[in-house]
Amino acid sequence: MSRPLTATVDLEAILSNYRYAKQLHPTCKAFAVVKSNAYGHGAVRVAQYLEGDADAFAVASIEEALELREAGIESPIMLLEGIFEPAEWELCAEQGFWTALENSMQLESLLTLGKPVEKVFVKLDSGMHRLGVNKETAAEYVQTLRDSGLVGEVLLMTHFACADDLADLTTMKQLAYFEQTRQLIGKVEASVANSAAIMKWSVPEGGWIRPGIMLYGISPFAEVSGVELGLKPAMTLTSKVISVRQVSTGDKVGYGLSYQAAADHQLLTVAVGYGDGYPRAADHGTPMLINGKPAELAGRVSMDMITAKRVTESSVPAAIGDEVVLWGNGVPVEKVAYWSGTIGYELVTRMTSRPHFVYQGEE
Ligand SMILES: Cc1ncc(COP(=O)(O)O)c(C=O)c1O
């Protein structure tokens, strides 16, 4: 191995987080949400590891679903946004994909195709106004699908806009609208809960939960880390110091010379940059560990490198080859995200293919 940037993914942690989600709702089945390359962790490797434990997988597109099938995943796979083109129904029927259904194109093209599909989740817009139909239309869709005889089971789903904000009443309002819709329909299985709702809201029991970010040990809440929620972080991003120099008080560093040394200190160049997924917006002071000791970003993030300094100068100088933890073990990704003006979801999901990926937990 040459460039020393490695994303180590702990598959056992992901399985353990999945089991934790199910423990919180023992009457529910759970999708393992592995869209967007399992939030940057590697969809095929994650799904292969969870296969046999996960009740089903959920992805955002038929391409993501087919990638899993081609890798040998036999469990049900759900398309969270449904089909984008009528021709996709043929593949759904053939491959046993389950789908969300949220518009008339999706409904009519299924009826026109006339082939049986296993499960359809009619998507209710309970207040987020991104996907879904209102309660009357949802009830009509459920009836039409049931009458068609083409669908093994018709379920009702919705998605929360603000479940990560425990002080916001929107989730309560969305749940109330969901219940009103269920009353219009009569007996129907439900799927409402993402990670935040699984961990902190009271959601309908039975049916399906849809944990995503929590599987990867990352918190959906701004004010608390995954570890504090009892989750096991799944990804640790590490690299090494590749160059060391001494800067003097007043020296400026990096593109734009945006960092200025307030005292004499060692400046350590580390092999990671925004070309790997490390956020360019990370501010001076973004935390990391160098040889297990607290360190921080000092200078603008480049495509392939960053510059850093140790928080406390030590009598033992840092050296080329010292290990750097950028996030994961000992450095919550949520903290790095905070310093970069974003959320943990985005940091892991936008990892590029440049880091070496190492999987722990496989035989
Ligand atoms: C419809 C749907 N369900 C579940 C999830 C998983 O959400 P989270 O990662 O917050 O658990 C997502 C993710 O965006 C989603 O779009």
Automatic annotation (TrEMBL):
Pathway(s) this gene product operates in, as recorded in its UniProt entry: Amino-acid biosynthesis; D-alanine biosynthesis; D-alanine from L-alanine: step 1/1
Cofactor: pyridoxal 5'-phosphate
One GO cellular component term noted in the UniProt record for this chain: cytosol
Record has Isomerase as a keyword: yes
UniProt protein name: Alanine racemase
UniProt-listed Enzyme Commission number(s): 5.1.1.1
GO biological process: D-alanine biosynthetic process
